[in-house]
Amino acid sequence: MNLLTREPGETRPLGPLDEYSFQDCELADFFVFGSSRVQSHLAQMILLSKDAVECVLDTFEGERVIGVQFVATASKVKRWIFSIHLPHSDNDEDTFAVALAELSTVCHRHQSGQVVILGDFNVERESHRAFLLDDVLGRFGYKTFRGGVATRFGRNGSSELDFACVSRKLNAMIRRIPQAARLIVHSQSRLDIGSDHERITLELALGDKIPRRARRRPNKGRCGRWSVGLNLNEHVSQLQTVFSEMSLVGKWEALKETQVACCYRTPTYKFKDSPQLKQMCKDRTQCQDPDTKLLLTRGILAKRRAEKIEWLRDLEERSSRGEAGAIRYLRGRSKVYNNMDGMARECGGVDEAARAIQEHFDLLFNPTVSDEHKQTVAEVMSALQLSSGEFAVKLFTKEEIDKGVARLKPGKSTGMSGVSSELLTAMWTIPQGQCILTDFLNDMLQSSEVPAEVHRAFVVLLPKVRDVLRPLDIRPICLVEVTNKLFSFLLLQRLVDSWPVPNCQFGAVSGGQVLDALAAAHWQTGAEAMRQRRSVWINADIQSAFDSLNHSTIAQYLQEHCPPHLSRETLQLLRIVCSPVMKFSWKGTDWETLQGQGVQQGHTHSPIIFAYIIGHYVQTEFERWRVGGSSSSTGDWGWLFIDDLLLHFDDWHTASTLTPLMQKALASLGLRLNLRKTELLGHEEALQEGRRLCLPEDHLLRQISWKTSTQYLRKPLRFLEVGESTFQLLFPSLKRAVYVGMESMKSVFKSLFWREAELAFKLVNRYVGSKWFWFGPLLIPIQTHVQEVQTLQVSVMTSVLKLFIPETVKRDAAMSLHRLRRRALLVFLGRNRQVSWAHIWRMRIWGYFGHVLRRHDTHPTKRILLGQDNLQRPQGGVANTPLRWIRSSVAKAFSVEPTVEQLLICAADREQWRIQGSQYIVAMGDSESHSHLAQSTWSHWQYSVLQLVPWLFPCSMVSVDGRTSLIWIDECEGFQQWDLEDVSFEDLWTFVTRVRMQSDAWVFMIHVSTEMYEAHAVMWGRLAEECVTNFHQIVLLDILDDVTMERVTSKFLQRKDLTPRQVNASLLGAFLLAPAFILIQKAYYDTLIDYLNLSLLSPTKFTWDYTEVVARPKEVLDEAGGALKWPELRKLLLERCSAMGLRAQHLPLRVLASIPEPFLNDKDAWVRRPRARDRSASKLAPCDSQALLSKELRRAQARLLVVYFTSRMCGPCQQLKPEVHQLASELPEITFLEVDVEENAAIADKYRVDAVPTFLFFRNQAGSGPGRL
Fold first, then answer.
1. How would DSSP label each residue in 1102-1148?
2. Predicted local confidence at residue 1180, as pLDDT
3. Residue 504 annotated to the active site
4. Residue-level pLDDT at 15
5. 1210 is an active site residue
6. Measured between alpha carbons, how far is 374 from 548 in angstroms, rounded to an integer?
7. Which of 129, 141, 1156, 1187 has the fewest C-beta atoms under 10 angstroms from its C-beta?
């Protein structure tokens, strides 16, 4: 059946889907639609409950998508529901691209309606296909809902492939209540329905559209970001005369007054219209004339786009200089704001939630401290006070303070007083300001009583998760006074040199970085997998580490490791640690608490003190184990990155014996392990061995999870299998980081197109690529891995630059365009290595290996790296290790024997290491760079000259009778020609320069013969290089085979016989549209007019003097901004064409779009108003064969027969088609036939049809072409 209910009570055939009716079964209560013609396994069906659906309006059937439009009974709203089944992962990329294009079409057509799309998307999370799918859905504003669990269960595992998405308009109707929208996966339902997929249900609680809530005003408190005014010099000069006579409290108040008098809130970086643009908007609002208003509107849109690009370019330049505000603005454009309202719901109200948060943090920061600990701190302070009196005060010098001020980060939020780092930095640039700051800081050093406000901090409560439901989901960050930060840095600068550096600590120590800890872990597990050792690793999580460290432990460490002559500095640092006051605020409830333990998060000293103390005690514990007779193959039993502890044991006996001792050592510091997050890592065989051990139930190893894979420093860590590499383990993390970066920057990238390629690459590298560049040295850049990274970058840039392929393009052409855009990006990356991810990756790994090789011999990372020497694979042969890669690279870069000793010698000279490595990597990139030359892959000769997409300008070089020409097909004017006096770089450069004026293309593709390329190979290379350097545009050369080149040349010769002499209307259109205002530079104007003259097939020149135009503001130019007046311009065009013997031609549609509506009329030879579009009685019949055309010619005899040649790829053809239908219906005495030139190339060739749209008129089987009409 194919009967759909159009309205209640009415039925008629409508839509391509089949409708099925059922009686006496459970399906009788549903409207059932489906099709077995789609490209899924069997069929696709949609069932709609008759109780919820008032009537069905329409259906849709595609290759992999079916849909039904219905009217909901309750809301009377029209909605679409679509079922989708995308290709499986074993299908090739071309098949997936075609299916994705169909989905893109559906999303685009219905993006303004209420739409639900659900089904089997066959896309794994964080895969390349997932990125492409998210790009399509995000582009049209669709929101995705997933269940978060596997929905498909196959022989090789399970995965989440079934989910749903809704349109922006429907998403706006979802009520703002908990669980208003969720996707439910019904576990084990696949067994009931006999499928390998679980059943999913999308539940939506819909209501009226929620109006957007007004934005909250910025925090009215003193905490914020500031800029310094111009009155600082005068104010500081006056303050300096009396500052030295003030008390410490008075000096503090003077600094606060300086902040108020000389600083103002940092203005936003948000885009704002320029004064000129605002004036244009004002003129448009006040304008009454519709023609002028139309011209002003176009000018406003063009100018605003240009200003936005310049604004974005300026932001990028500022961020590249390290301007914190610009960096923060770009990163925060798509910030996801967490919801803390769930806390109030869980606790029963806002007041109860505030009380729960207060109790939690009071218990965390100010627990009951034993008298013993308090006495220890008091005794240490007393001893330091006595010791400090024995030594003279060593005041802070200008050099010391200069280092501290240089470390202040601009753009950071201030403390409660409002004194900002910008103020201190600006004061330090003034001699009087230096005296003030030096005086104040030295007074703080000598005083035992500092202003209480200096130790106060405002606590910002940041959510750890998306929906906060309990206090544990909140992370407290302190906004500390900047003067306190500067003071503590000066104290640490003197003290830290006397502290022993723990060998096991990688964080917050000189030269330490997170990459050291990651590299040591991955290199060691990789080596053990090669050696088939079954060691045991403990990934220990310390609960609330910074907030739990005993103050007595800190006091004892400082007293023990600080020299006596620095007792004053030690005492002042201890006072800062032990006496902070923390102010909280949540939902209108304010409270304060003292910090009785731990170190203040957000302070300068916090990570340094914590890292040194915990590192010292963990290293001490390792020494006890070594003295006790234990040993480790790695030297020590693990390492730390600040508070992240990773322990390594060679066997189960050692692990079971030593882990309780480490737990006890941490407990002595006030620290405890989070048993819920602490994990044991081992190979499956090692875990099986451990399960056979008889461990007590209360043993630490029994209380934690045992896994074959863990997350260490937010990166996966496990033992590699045979044939597996670290790249395969971390590449999903790399892609995830890239996709997260793309999502966070999507509001910035949406303004970019291929025209801004250079800016796009810079932004992508800085805010997307940088998310994985830092851990790139963990990945060995062998050739296959480099290709995968390049493929990922090309996919990202294809999306950012909007190198789209229209849905109207045929599949073979679409696939060629797909390969072409990737080729163009690879060529661009080869010419601009500084933005290539492969080049950046190799440079970073080279630099990092040099850093590791220069470390001391006992450093764990260096010891593990050098321990890979002569490592063998289990199946035989030398293992592909990081050491092997760096030895091979050093041998090529330095031309030396790559022994370990030679590696250390080469790396010792830092500058020489950088120079030699850079030269080697550049040479490697040159050998891998993609060539601008390739063999043409076009399936039809027309594609070599036809403009299929706006980012590509294809043309062909033909030689006829010793004269060389470049030809292409314009979308409106058909064949175009540029004659070359000589095949030289200068002539081709002139051609590219002129074409750039009329085309927005990013890729210029020139098709040449083999002989033409070989004769001028150097010239072509220079042309490609100059275009990339000067314009950031790509020139590609495609070699056409002899048959195709001969056909293109023959078509060109036929075109010369048929085309009349006429003005190139498309260039006139570019002249009318490109500069919305004619007041442009004279050089540009003259070049455009010269180019216009070159397109005339007449010796007479088309003269239009620049001064003549600008001298007639009342005749040719509109007074409201200098826009061209169409009537006056039309007169000038007619005068010149008449004088040259040229008749008026219809202007192309894009030129008509620039003409005000009142000037469009049917009597004008230059313009034509579209007629009413009514195709109900159209008699335009398709013609798909020469036999049919011959039959119609014989049947028509004396009657007129019109053959309309068109193409689905031709935009003007599609816009003209409704009018042809209208003519066919109005003139029944005339026979109209439609010929698609792509489907029927033989017919087009026979009648010498070179461009579309084209009309041929026949009477008595005799035809008249456009050249003879």
1. ----HHHHHT-TTTTB-TTTSPBPHHHHHHHHHHHHHHTTPPP-PPP
2. 79
3. no
4. 72
5. yes
6. 15
7. 1187
